[in-house]
């Protein structure tokens, strides 16, 4: 490919520095030949470069999946709460007959069917 015909442009130019730093972190964790630290990757084998790129992609996908799972859990909880009908007793501040610990002073347990 001739000079000036680079096709893999980043979507966010602000992320270039972070991606570059991420690349060097992954390379050091994988114990890649330390020659890359000079900034020149020409002496690094294709297998090692592929391992760095593959691990970067694997981690980015895991981070995206985790974010989606958290968003889905949050929206599912909100949707579940919105779909639940509000009980009339809860609107008035009354206690539930199912939980004896909610019995207020002055109320008898027998009123709730508790012996």
Automatic annotation (TrEMBL):
UniProt cross-references to Gene3D superfamilies, sorted A to Z: Small, acid-soluble spore protein, alpha/beta type-like
Transmembrane segments: none
UniProt feature, compositional bias: Polar residues: 106-115
Spans annotated as Disordered: 85-115
InterPro entries reported in the protein's UniProt record: SASP_alpha/beta-type, SASP_DNA-binding, SASP_sf_alpha/beta
UniProt-listed Pfam families: SASP
Name of the protein this chain belongs to: Alpha/beta-type small acid-soluble spore protein
Organism placement in taxonomy: Bacteria, Bacillati, Bacillota, Limnochordia, Limnochordales
